[in-house]
Structure formats: C-alpha cells, structure tokens
Amino acid sequence: MDDGVLRTRPHYSGMFNAFGTIFSSEGVRGLYRGVTPNVWGAGSAWGLYFLFYGSIKSYMQEGDSRRDLGAARHMLAASQAGVATLVVTNPIWVVKTRLCLQYSSADASLPESKKYRGMIDAFRKTYRYEGMRGLYKGFVPGVWGVSHGALQFMVYEELKSQYNRRRGKTIDSKLSTLEYLTFAALSKLVAACSTYPYQVVRARLQDHAGSYAGSLDVIRRVLRYEGVRGLYKGLTPYLCHVTPNICCVFLVYELMTAGTGR
Predict the structure, then answer these.
(1) 134-157 CB burial, b ≥16 within 10 A, e <16
(2) What topology does CATH give the domain 15-256?
C-alpha cells in the first residue's frame, strides 16, 4: 500500500519487484511479516462471518433452505454479517497492517511507541498510546468494505441459484467441487474489482507512519499524487492471494454444511 510520498520506506514498481526487494533486504522472514495476526484475523473473520451470515439468512428464509431470497436480501444478509464481523476483528487488522509495514531500517526515526516486536506488543502499544480509537483506525472504510463481502456473497448465491434453476433443480441442490470453486472465484473477482479502493484507504489509515486526517483525506492525496491508479495499488498480488483462499474457504463451508440441512 505504498503511497509514493513517504520516502522513509522502500518503494516497489510491481509485485515481482516487491518480492525481490523484500527477500534481498530482509530474507524469507520479511515475506511473512504480519502472518500471525493475519492467521488470527482471517480465521476469526471467516468463522464469524459465516456464523452471522448463516443465521441471518436462515432467519430470512424462515428455516426453509429452498426459499429464494433474491439478490437484494442476499446482499442485506451479507452486509449485516459484515458489519458485525468488522466490529470484532478490526483491531486484528490494524495490528496486521502495522506489522506488515514495519521496516527496521526505514522506521529507525519512529518513536519507541510505534516500533513493534510482535503481535501482542503491537496490541499493547497501540492501546496504551492511542486507546481504543487506535485499534479501530480504518473502521469507516472497513464499513465501506462491507459492500465487498455483500457483493461477493450476493454474486455467489445468485450464481448457484441460477445454475440450479437451469438444471431444473432446487436452489439448495449440491454442486460439484469444480462448480463451487468456479463460482467462488468469479464472485471474488467481481467483488474485488468493484470495491478494491477501500482496501488501499483502510491500509493507509492503519499505517502507524501515516498522517491522514481521515478517509476523504486519503482519497484526495492518493488522487493528487498517484491518480486513479493509486487506488488500485496491490490489486494483482491481492487477487493472487485471496482468490485461492476464498475458493478453499467456500468449498470447505459447502462441504461442512452438506449434511446439516441448512
């Protein structure tokens, strides 16, 4: 999420340049910065999201899994689940972002309160010096980002429903592994390309070395110094990372719920 303005950090011309630069200067360890909070964040976020989404969807269907909610209600259920999940997990994403953007040489001028030795230390120092407000930096663009999950789930559910209708089956009929993977990948691609700028805005607000007044200030400065292209920085590695991830998550979810009569 390099902003092209902060000169105390290395700057990358692309995904492969970033890989090479990080590996040559920090080794393999540098490529895994923030992995601990990312594992905790991803695990808790998806677990909570599916819990909330499944419960809300079942409530809307009044317990009948064959009842078609339609695109609007699928999006509403996913939006409500997304906001509830964000309230719980936002502090984890703040810590993950700060650890990923920490460089021993580039951040030498930062005060001790913004130098982190690991996940727990980052939580402790963020809360101590910035309070709960620090742990909820980026929450507003995160709420915008709820549209990402809502759009993704809506597209995924509609793809499954329409496909089953064309096969002359009920909307809750089970699909093959390849079909689940295909619909999951397509839904992620649509959602990512439509809503990715919120990821850039949220990451910049959560960056401990940044100095933005708010979401609108981030957008204004990105457009001023980097143009529209700046709002899509990191999209390629993001898609390379999350597409296989989301395919696995959705597949496991479908397989785990196959016999529950959801």
Answers:
(1) bbbbbbbbbbebbbbbbbbbbbbb
(2) Mitochondrial carrier fold (1.50.40)
Which residue, 168, 163, 214, 215, is CA-closest to 187? 163
Q: How buried is residue 197: exposed, middle or buried, by Cβ count under 10 Å (0-12/13-18/19+)?
A: buried
Cβ atoms 90, 142 nearer than 8 A: yes
Rounded to two decimals, the pTM is 0.63
Q: What is the pLDDT of residue 187?
A: 94
* Angstrom distance (rounded) from CA 144 to CA 232: 16
User: Are 89 and 47 a contacting pair, CB within 8 Å?
Assistant: no
91 HSE (CA, 13 A, CB side): 16
pLDDT at 163: 94
Helices 139-166 + 197-206 axis angle, to 10? 150
Does position 38 have pLDDT exceeding 80, yes or no? Answer: no
Least confident of 5-9, 148-152, 216-220: 5-9
Nearest by Cα to 95 from 54, 41, 47, 28: 41
pLDDT tens figures, 110-146: 666 677 777 788 888 888 888 998 899 888 877 877 8
Q: H/E element holding 35?
A: helix 35-60
Could you give the C-alpha distances from 197 to 4, 19, 123, 142, 154, in angstroms and in order?
A: 16, 22, 26, 11, 20
Q: Can you give the residue ranges of every domain in the chain?
A: 15-256
